[in-house]
Amino acid sequence: MGVVRNCRYRRVKITTLNAFLAGCLILARGLNAANEPANAGAAPPENVSPIATAAPADSGRSVVSEKPTIPATNTPDETKATTQAPGTVTRTSSSPAAVYVVPIHGEISTPQLYILRRALKEAIENHADAVVLDMDTLGGEMSVMVDMMDALSKFPGHTYTYVDDKALSAGSFIASATNEIYLKPGSSTIGAAAAVSSEGTDIDSTMKLKIDSYMEAKVRGMTAGKRYRADVQRAMMDEDFEFKIGDTVIKPKGELLTLTGEEACKTYGQPPEKLLGAGLAPDIGALLTKLYGPNGFTMTEFNLSWSEQLAKWINSVAPILMGAGILLLLLEFKAPGFGLPGIVGIGLLIIVLAGQYVAGLSGYEPAALFVLGLIFLVLELFVFTGSVLCGVLGIVSFFASFVWAMTDVWPGQSFGGVTVDALAQPVLNLALALFIAGVGFALALRFLPKTSFYGRLVNQTAVPRDSLVATSGGAAATGALTLPDPGVRGVAVTDLRPLGEIEIAGGRFQARAVHGQINRGAAVEVVERKDFALAVKNAKD
Question: Which residue among 61, 235, 446, 495 is least crowded, i.e. fewest CB within 10 A of its CB?
Fold first, then answer.
């Protein structure tokens, strides 16, 4: 049995404080990586033909340690493997192979995609040698299945599927996207992959032809070098396809192919080659021992946790949460001080970022960019009031953080390598969020001033109930709290360029200069009450 070591899992809960420290954590990760022993990639078994790959995170993992083994640093030339017999590998390197095990259990749905994507990205970052899918599924969503197949193609190491019990329908397609398929003897099955509706009923014949054609081409592209795999997968999905090897009919017309573990590992043709499965193994530990030898590997197991289920819900309503968060921040910025709307708004936006993080889309960087954007906006509103630069930088950083968080960027891939298709959904989500926030803000400006909540929102931190006095014809505030009337005078406490703050009778208000700019300390006169702010001009003596 190989050594299962406890690998460090660098992850933080996304809170306001942790997000603020995210930049420091990124730097710390780099420094730690520089001081840790390298986990050099071990050579894969020679009987495994790699598929074409593209160049290029609650942890959800269970780890057990048999003994404290620290892999030695090896260069690719120092790590060698020679095949002695089918299914066995002799490693001459002193560094055990790093293997990640990911469960694909139950219905194929979004949480399975999240945990797979998270595991693959961490495996790439940690230079893991192999990823094993521990599969037991009846199938599931086609769109998720395709995304999982695409994710597997991005891993530069070797991928395996271990069919613990069944890999039916979508499960068989995902298995076909891995380098090798191993099965449990006696009870495992794989196949029955015809496309059906979400209710399990037959779909329109034309649509079925389109789906079958697309999936057949996709499997052919991902199984180059596997003599029978594409035809086996076609036989699993197309009842009209007769699958023959020589004079042997593997699957006649009129039915779908489903194979037992033993049937999947039968050999056909000249030279002999196994039909689909690379071999049989009673469990994953035995499989890895067979591949890499005793103590020839380290294994890290991931577990599907409640966080993936929560992330599925968060990401399904992400535009609504973003829109509500932006709306609350707009209302907060229009009112003096900082209170509940701002806190809730920031909280909603952090929840969105957390959902992307758990989904395996986002790392720490978007959270750091989000905090940077907030800092710029705070500087614009309260320190460098009226300076356009801080405001622009804040807005750009703020919105870019969400596009980045929702974009599927893989380790080693720069934003220059991200396709337009990958950016389309994040940009659409952001646009929908801005639309929701805009409509909500317009409705708030129209109806909120007519409510009793309006006075509390505007004046709860700005104007004491007994401090507002009437000057130059203005009315004193009695009963309900209101903004100062036109004609009331005050003094500018910041430069108005054209936005800034003024003070009237001990209370501070946001204000806008109607003409040019007004310097700090100048006397001002209220011209108009507008929305949550005041329009003012230089007061004449």
Answer: 446
